[in-house]
Amino acid sequence: MAASPPVRATRPGRVPRVTARNALFQQWQALLTNRTKRQRTGEFLIHGVRPITLAVEHGWPLRTLLYPAGQRLSEWARRLIDDSGVPLAEVAPELLHELGERESDAPELIAVGALLPDDLDRLRPGPGFLGVAFDRPGNPGNIGTLVRSADAFGAAGLIVTGHAADVYDPKSVRASTGSLFSLPVVRRPSPEDVLDWVGAQRDRGLPIRIVGTDESGSTPISGCDLTVPTLLVVGNETAGMSARWREMCDEVVRIPMGGAASSLNAASAGTLVLYEAARQRDFPATDR
After folding, report:
1. How far apart are CA 210 and CA 212, in angstroms?
2. How many helices (H) and strands (E) does the chain have?
3. What domains are there in the chain, each with its CATH number?
4. pLDDT of 263 strictly over 80
5. Bridge partners for 132 per DSSP
6. What's the start-to-end Cα distance of the chain, in Å?
7. Are 149 and 274 in contact (CB under 8 A)?
């Protein structure tokens, strides 16, 4: 199959060309490592075919699509450029390679996404509500992994609380493999915000139970009813749940373990409890 010709701009107006490390390039580069810049600009970078595709499919607001100057693009990249309506920027391949953080060739596309509001009502609670709160995670990769698991096992969303790694860190976005764009993920500064929200849902007639996870929990996960509206709490990788989260929990469950391991990785533990909730709820009703 013959390669396509180099892409041509299809948007009205002038497409910016970035061939040097100018202010615009430095702004994009800062989004890779500088959390403060991500918050200040309200932007982050999205890498990879699947994450970019899912961002477009789920209507995630994209500010810019970066593509390599003078290079032939795949049918996927050309179609996305033509159909998405996202503003374009043409970037020198060696600069795009730096933004892609890859050892091989420059990526075909990098998307600049917009940060969404941290509104708990994005979780849209209902009678079958299943949510996850991740308390002060220190590893962005664990956030992305738990987002992916929550998406796979039918959760309505994930809440990151306290002083935590950034949901929009490239490691988190990459680890989610695109689930960040299909599952609501909200950041809140403290457990109190979440407790207020849970209280409001209870006042509306939705009896959400808060179920914590800890190796010293009183109930094995198989003995906990996870078919009712539930908010699962996963603690920090080292310290576990904060004292306030423990106070808020209606029940704390444990994952029975053998061998020499003293505990599980936080994202792994969260995934196992999510799987148990999905099993009890018969979700999905049929395998994909």
Report:
1. 7
2. 10, 12
3. 19-114 (3.30.1330.30), 120-256+264-281 (3.40.1280.10)
4. no
5. 158, 232
6. 32
7. yes
User: pTM to 2 decimals?
Assistant: 0.91
User: Exposed, middle or buried: residue 66 (CB in 10 Å: 0-12, 13-18, 19+)?
Assistant: buried
Place of tokens 């010293």: 216
Q: Which pLDDT tens digit goes with each residue over 266-282?
A: 999 999 999 999 999 99
Non-local (6+) Cβ contacts of 260 within 8 A are: none
| Residue linked to tokens 């799987």 | 275
Specify which residues 254 forms β-bridges with: 220
Measured at the CA of 57, the angle between CA 47 and CA 60, to 5 degrees, comes to: 65
In a 13 Å sphere around the CA of 58, the CA atoms on its Cβ side amount to 16
Q: Are 235 and 214 in contact (CB under 8 A)?
A: yes
**What is the C-alpha to C-alpha distance for residues 151 and 280, in angstroms, rounded to an integer?**
16
| Tokens (6 digits) for 146 | 């738990």
Q: Are the CB atoms for 267 and 149 separated by under 8 Å?
A: yes
